[in-house]
Design brief:
The protein has 540 residues and is an alpha+beta fold. The chain has five domains: 84 residues, DNA Polymerase III, subunit A, domain 2 (DNA Polymerase III, Chain A, domain 2), CATH 3.10.150; 106 residues, DNA Polymerase III, Chain A, domain 2 (Roll), CATH 3.10.150.10; 129 residues, Roll (DNA Polymerase III, Chain A, domain 2), CATH 3.10.150.10; 96 residues, no CATH class; 71 residues, no CATH class. It is built from eight helices and 37 strands. It has a nine-stranded antiparallel β-sheet, with helices on one face. Strands 5-2-3-4-14-13-12-7 form an eight-stranded antiparallel β-sheet. A four-stranded antiparallel β-sheet has the order 18-17-16-20. Strand 12 and strand 13 form a beta hairpin.
């Protein structure tokens, strides 16, 4: 197969978002090239998602081979020619399931890729709620939220029910700008745009009711429109980014708005702005990152509630951008007494630059969920399918009630290849002490119809091979003895481990309180697991 370096490099940038270079499975570290003289595609998979792109390449005949991703990157760097000749090894690449003919495709607009690019920065890929790690699609359009902010981009999608796709890392790199189609069935999806094709699994879970978050127009009783958003962007960029609370105040003044950094109160910017509606009782405070993202996407008008306790609706860009203000309520110094009387039933807490108090239970819950995800990732990586037997199956491992549970399943209910041989392997973390552990497996099998299949299971053992020294003699007493003579006492030790022990020398520390020096003769011997070890200590 012949291909230019630029074309191969372009494909690897896309497929590299799917390849797992640290995976112990060679397939997940490789790029597959398949096709013939009529067309060639390159594809990659991580066991759940499969992405492929059509290449501008040439082959004399049908090809189907795989090359490690790292090897391809090195070949590109080292090649001095514009054209490259590729060949590789054949691997059992799982064929992604194709939708049935009756599955109706949903037409995606030409700007669908751009909509995902706008939505992607809001996705919290580390959220313990799996459904919030993706992008929600419905008949109303594209929606994302991380619990602090929400962006809804309306676009006509003929979906009968809303779905949540995983984070589209490869699609964002592909930068598609043409119409495409989306097919969903069972819990799977197939997205095709131009030369880009993406098979995957929809995210499980109920997406938050984002429609209920959008505040009504009557509740947002004032608005701020920045006249010079470019100057505000430059000013916000100079505020240091930090993970903790990093608020920016928008103080309404008679001449516009004064912006104040909550972490550097001396850092301020007075800028022209159009303020409509009532005079706000509370100062609007937004997170620095959220404010900057809004401004960069063209949102220059902020509709808010005068009491500062409702979500803020940003306008000016595409769709609706909603963000929760930082719950630090600071009274607006320009608020007039007569307006104050109109809202006398609304309590206001006057605070100066007070950081919001974090809920320690929420932080603890988040930390626990993150720890669970790390443990699950470690378990999943320890269990590996035999690619020769797998037929598009997925393996997952988890610890439940101090039991190791391994699940192997096919979303399309396919059968395994072959009738015998190793199906999967897994790693165990050994304990420190030598011992023999019994493995008592319980197996549940089902056929392609989903019915249970009887299975015979035999127990096995895991032996930790290690010596372990145990003192039989715990105390040595020489008593009262004359000096300048040799005396011996016997200390008995025993190897209670599961493998032989090689004792090369024995030493004893010399205590400064002792008048007479002590030493130990050097000993070299082997012992079995049941043999006692006699040796002597001499007083010189």
């Amino acid at each position: 197969m012949k291909i230019t370096k630029n074309e191969l490099s372009r494909a690897l940038k896309v497929l590299g978002k799917v390849v797992c270079q640290t995976s112990p499975v060679e397939l997940y570290r490789s790029i597959r090239f398949i096709g013939d003289e009529c067309g060639i595609r390159a594809m990659a998979t991580d066991g759940v998602e499969t992405v492929s792109v059509k290449l501008e390449a040439f082959a004399d005949s049908a090809i189907d081979f795989c090359i490690p991703f790292k090897e391809l990157k090195e070949d590109i760097r080292s090649s001095r020619s514009e054209f490259m000749e590729l060949s590789g090894n054949s691997l059992a690449f799982p064929e992604p399931e194709e939708p049935a003919a009756e599955v109706v495709p949903v037409v995606l607009p030409a700007d669908f890729g751009e909509l995902l690019s706008q939505a992607a920065p809001i996705v919290d890929r580390g959220n313990y709620r799996r459904v919030l790690q993706g992008i929600n699609l419905s008949s109303a359009g594209v929606t994302v939220t991380d619990g602090k902010q929400l962006l809804h981009l309306p676009t006509p999608l003929s979906l009968t029910k809303e779905v949540t796709i995983p984070f589209p890392a490869a699609l964002l790199v592909a930068k598609v700008d043409e119409m495409g189609t989306l097919r969903t069935w069972d819990n799977l999806f197939l997205l095709e745009i131009g030369n880009f094709k993406w098979h995957g699994k929809l995210l499980d879970g109920q997406y938050p009711n984002w429609r209920g978050v959008i505040p009504g127009a009557q509740a947002l009783n004032y608005s701020i429109t920045l006249d010079d958003s470019a100057a505000v962007i430059d000013w916000v960029k100079n505020i240091p980014s930090q993970k903790t609370t990093n608020g920016v105040e928008l103080n309404v003044t008679p001449h516009g708005v004064t912006l104040v950094s909550c972490i550097q109160t001396e850092y301020q910017l007075s800028t022209a702005a159009t303020v409509t509606g009532v005079t706000p009782r509370a100062v609007l405070t937004l997170d620095r990152e959220i404010l900057l993202r809004m401004l960069l996407q063209g949102y220059t008008t902020f509709k808010a509630n005068s009491d500062g306790q409702m979500p803020v609706l940003a306008c000016g860009g595409d769709g609706q951008y909603i963000a929760m203000p930082i719950r630090t309520i600071k009274t607006n110094p320009n608020y007039k007494e007569e307006n104050k009387m109109e809202h006398e039933n609304t309590p206001v807490v006057e605070q100066q630059n007070t950081a919001p108090v974090a809920n320690p239970l929420d932080e603890l819950g988040t930390a626990i969920e993150e720890f669970k995800l790390k443990i699950k990732a470690m378990l999943d990586e320890s269990a590996l399918l035999n690619t020769a037997r797998s037929n598009g199956h997925i393996i997952s491992a988890a610890e439940v009630d101090q039991e190791l549970r391994i699940y192997i399943y096919s979303l399309s209910l396919k059968t395994f290849r072959g009738s015998e041989g190793v199906l999967f392997s897994f790693k165990l973390k050994l304990n420190e002490d030598p011992a023999i552990y019994t493995l008592t497996p319980e197996v549940v099998l089902s056929n392609k119809s989903g019915k249970s299949v009887a299975a015979k299971v035999e127990a096995g053992t895991i032996t930790i091979l290690s010596p372990k020294l145990e003192f039989v003699t715990r105390e040595v007493n020489f008593g009262h003895v004359p000096i300048r003579s040799n005396y011996s006492r016997t200390i008995t030790l025993k190897n209670v481990g599961t493998s032989k022990m090689n004792v090369k020398s024995v030493t004893i520390p010399i205590l400064t309180e002792l008048i007479m020096p002590f030493s130990l003769r050097r000993l070299n011997f082997l012992t079995s697991s049941s043999e006692a070890i006699p040796f002597s200590i001499f007083c010189l």
